[in-house]
Write a structure and sequence with these properties.
CATH architecture of the largest domain: Sandwich
Number of domains: 2
Oligomer: single chain
Structural class: mainly beta
Number of helices: 5
Strand order of the largest sheet: 1-22-19-24-18-16-17
Radius of gyration: 19 Å
Order of helices and strands: HEEEEEEEEEEEEHEEHHEHEEEEEEEEE
CATH topology of the largest domain: Jelly Rolls
Largest sheet: 7 strands, mixed
Length: about 325
């Protein structure tokens, strides 16, 4: 593949285009400064203003959330997997119907495979603007977001209404639901009872892995972080590997479906027949299926990278009580 064609499959951190009206809580105080990024795939944005950088199907979506200090993302659930790793900042993740079932604080490089089917939210508790990178299961990411009832009610008080098709309308701009289109129904108490409330021990022990622990584990070879044989035993429709300077294999390799490279520390050189590119933290690169390529750090110092490859596993719920 030509260098130009490959460059078109690289989304640079500095070129990311944010959407500030992506979700129903975009006007809600405390959530009104967040930025949403859709990097690969359609994502789950509820706004037509959302820019999609790469539309190539991968079997999963890649996105990101950027937030200033004290800004939070409201309680919601997904029908498919949602995995985050912290690119920058310090973040508190919380879960449960009211966000009180448990919480965990993640630092740079940490990864969280959030169980599907539970309400979750997150906030930047650091002192600077922070960014978390996201992997969502499926090409259509499960058809959108399921919001906790209080989020929908609070958003309505600030002018945002979500249609039953999952599109936002801003009454402060004079918009209203089209004739014949109903608002998104609020979950009933019986429906809410079906959402699990796992304990912190269950979630943190089973679905969170710390950056420095993975660095130690990757001394000899890359770590399978998420997968059937991963240190997080989950099959969400994709696998995630963690590669460091010590475990980088400089030999050429290929995958039978598109893969995605996402540096979290250091600079990485990706080489293929006919060209090469250097990736920095926050960059996202899509590697075509069947293409031989090699990945290695390009400079001295700390270097770590996440690699995502789709699988044949269904992208639906994976949480089991």
């Amino acid at each position: 593949m030509t260098p130009q064609a490959m460059q078109e499959r690289i989304v640079r951190y500095g070129d990311l285009r944010p959407c500030r009206t992506a979700f129903i809580d975009a006007h809600t105080p405390g959530s009104d400064q967040k930025e949403n990024f859709t990097i690969i795939g359609g994502g789950v944005s509820e706004s037509p203003d959302q820019h999609v950088h790469l539309t190539i199907p991968h079997g999963f979506n890649i996105g990101a959330a950027g937030q200033p200090p004290k800004c939070r993302n409201s309680l919601h659930s997904h029908r498919t997997a949602e995995v985050f790793f912290v690119l920058s900042g310090r973040w508190r993740f919380f879960w449960g119907r009211w966000g009180r079932a448990g919480e965990v604080v993640l630092e740079e490089g940490d990864i969280f495979d959030i169980p599907t089917g539970i309400f979750r939210g997150f906030e930047n508790i650091g002192t600077d603007y922070g960014m978390i990178m996201a992997i969502l299961g499926g090409d259509d990411a499960g058809g959108g977001v399921v919001w906790a009832p209080q989020v929908i009610e609070e958003a309505k008080a600030h002018g945002l209404v979500l249609s039953e098709q999952g599109r936002l309308y801003d009454t402060k701009k004079g918009e209203s639901l089209p004739e014949g289109v109903a608002p998104m129904p609020v979950l009933t108490e019986d429906e809410l009872a079906a959402f699990p409330e796992p304990s912190p021990t269950e979630v943190i022990g089973g679905y969170v892995r710390r950056y420095w622990d993975m660095v130690a584990m990757a001394e000899q070879k890359p770590v399978k972080v998420i997968g059937e044989t991963g240190i997080i035993r989950d099959r969400p429709g994709f696998e995630v590997d963690f590669i460091t300077r010590a475990s980088a294999d400089r030999t050429m390799q290929r995958h039978d479906r598109p893969s995605v490279l996402m540096p979290v520390k250091g600079h990485w050189r990706v080489a293929w027949e006919g060209g090469e590119a250097v990736l920095a933290p926050g960059d996202t690169m899509s590697v075509p299926e069947g293409m031989d390529h090699g990945v290695a750090p390009s400079m001295t110092g700390e270097a770590a990278l996440y690699r995502v490859v789709g699988t044949d596993d269904p992208a639906g719920p994976t949480w089991k009580q």
